[in-house]
Write a structure and sequence with these properties.
alpha+beta, 16 helices, 5-stranded antiparallel β-sheet
Length: 546
Amino acid sequence: MRSGAKVAVVGGVFTVVAGGVGYGAYNLWNGITGGAEGTTTTSAAAPRTAGSGPVTAEEVERTARDFLAAWAAGDDAAAGELTDNADTAAPAVQNFREVAHVSKAVITPGKPVGTKVPFTVDATVTYEGKSKRLTYASELTVVRGVTTGRPLVDWKPAVIHPQLTGEAVLRTGEAPNPPVKAVDHRGVELTPEKYPSLKPVLAELREKYGSEAGGRPGIETWIDEAAGGAPDRTLLTLAEGEPGKLRTTLDAGVQAAAERAVKRYGESSVVAIKPSTGEIRAVANNRRDAFNAAFEGKQAPGSTLKMVTAALLLEKGLAAKDRPAECPKNVMYEGRTFHNLRHFALPDGSTFEESFKRSCNTAFIKLIDDVGDDAALGTEARDVFGIGLNWQTGVRTWDGSVPAETGGEAAAQYIGQGTVQMNVLNVASITATAKNGSFKQPVIVPRDLDDRPIASAARPLEGSAARQLRDMMRATATSGTGAEAMAGVGGDKGAKTGSAEVGGQADSNSWFAGFADDLAAAAVVQAGGHGGDAAGPLVAAVLNAR
């Protein structure tokens, strides 16, 4: 594939134009003049010789050239036959013209890299007299057909556009939902330009509430996810709609602090919640993709789950903050050995509060037999902390899971490992429940907007257990593993650190949860090490923005 070759749509029809060097100066189809002109090509329909083994460089170049030419010519059938899935590829090429309403496009191939051929598309989208350019890059891969032995394009929707997956299509028309002007609880506008972490959240809010917010749709080109479950993604706006106003529970100041905080680290997430109401004040992610890991992620939360475990033990009377709790270096439970960080141990007579604020794993595991119920931790998580209930925050969320386990796997759960699955929204909510004494389901859109059902926990945390848990979290924030990170945070404050070991990962994930007055927050930094080292300063920065 030589540089300079261009495949184009000109004047509302698909043609191949001269690029100086490359495909050559020939015209496949010109609907304006009513027929073919110049030298035509039949390369797209040329017979293919069956082969075996890896495709050759010549086959890669020729197949990519012919496919792009067929696409540019608007020859859906020929383009489809040059792929390994003609039944899907041909309609996709047709949709590029008829559903995406591309009236003009220049496709410029790049230099092949092995079996892959990159290319750029410079398209003009036209709908109801309005036109705008849409440019992007994609690539195709040439493979050998399993049954035919012919070199073929390995068909994927992303060939047409890199964001197309599954049954999604590129569509142009009146937008399915009017735009929204999202504002925080004080009326400050929240834009993806100023708060980039909110981009997927705002897109989902528009999809769910755009038609209810009083706006008027514009004309757009978007990725229509069809039945994919993800929110549609706008790629191009040909005519602006009129946005409706959507009030959220977010706080612009806390959100700004969260955005800055996550940028300090590689991959990280944070959520802040108002304990007395469950209102979400901030959500931020630092990721290479658009996945909202803070709300939808699933991973072990490490010792931050000891807030739930401690609540269970306190409520059952098996521990008290001032009662001695043995904390040896190591402990074995049903054939599985557990140890503390760097194999530390606490002196005989040390209290349960000391074990909590130093995050002693063995002290918690040694009490499992006394609980006498393998499902007790999951029950506590659900009935008191609302974990695993069907949360209706206003956007999609994963609501946590503590499945029933036995033996060593049950012991691992007591310290937030094993099969426990959480995200920072879940851990922030656990922290908020600990501070408030009862579960308030997190919300990002006020319930009065749509009167949706809100999850309720079966019961509040028993009063004495709640007070002791808060006291132990306060001790952690002032003289325990969270003291350094929380040193600059004022007010009534508490914390819990966590380090979650992940198989195949050299460093643990860093978790931290904390509260200050009526704001609770949790954060995770992937491979960040000890909870207080990376996630701790992140949470502190968010709490200080209250």
